[in-house]
Specification:
By secondary structure, the protein is of the alpha/beta class. The protein is 37% helix and 24% strand. A 7-stranded mixed sheet has the order 3-2-1-4-5-7-6, sandwiched between helices.
Length: 210
């Protein structure tokens, strides 16, 4: 039996505006085939908006108008599809190694009518040299030192990795800073997003390379 996603909260109305119906469709897809495909757990349905969709979509303020963005380990389209809905001006490239997930993502993009998102099957290191962008993002993929090894080679010169992290982002950065600098990072900061949209702001660890 398909689970019904909760109603969109006020924060979703503020963030998505006239594109809210697409975000609601995305929530319905996640509650249905997202669960049956094992992309999210059935207990996550009740917190889809706060924990997943809005948690990801609020990082849209990281990217200038018309930016090309790669989402590494796209999984359930978080953050890639949430960003594509919130920001139709962005060009989203979703990188995901698992066939079942890439098929799900491709179908979700078609169902949502998103012209600004595409799917690439493979691990990040497998698309090095074939895909690059000024911006790369990822959520719940790996610790920042490992993530940087996968993602920095996808960045254009002076590009930025925007990694969604939790409350321990400052500590994670401090522990990995020396490694990150050896990998080409020139500066980094922890940024909060979504104040007034989500109950707890989303934190990103933003690493710029040479």
């Amino acid at each position: 039996m398909t689970a019904e996603p909760p109603m969109a909260p006020e924060g979703a109305h503020r963030l998505f505006g006239e594109r809210l119906p697409r975000a609601e469709t995305f929530a319905a897809i996640l509650a249905d085939t997202g669960v049956s495909h094992g992309l999210i757990g059935p207990r996550e349905v009740d917190i889809l908006w706060e924990r997943h969709i809005l948690n990801c979509a609020v990082i849209e303020d990281s990217f200038p108008t018309g930016s090309r963005v790669i989402d590494v380990g796209a999984g359930a389209g978080l953050p890639g599809l949430a960003l594509a809905i919130a920001r139709p001006d962005l060009e989203l490239h979703l990188v995901e190694p698992m066939l079942r997930r890439t098929e799900w993502l491709t179908e979700a993009i078609a169902d949502l009518g998103l012209a600004n998102a595409s799917v690439h099957r493979g691990r990040a290191e497998e698309v090095h040299g074939n895909l690059s962008a000024p911006w790369v993002t990822a959520r719940a993929v790996a610790r920042i030192d490992k993530l940087a090894r996968w993602c920095f080679p996808l960045l254009d010169p002076e590009g930025t990795l925007v990694a969604i992290k939790g409350r321990s982002a400052p500590e994670e950065l401090a522990k990995a800073e020396k490694v990150l600098r050896r990998l080409g990072m020139v500066r980094a900061r922890v940024t909060e997003h979504g104040v007034g949209v989500v109950s707890e702001p989303t934190r990103t660890l933003d690493c710029r390379v040479t």
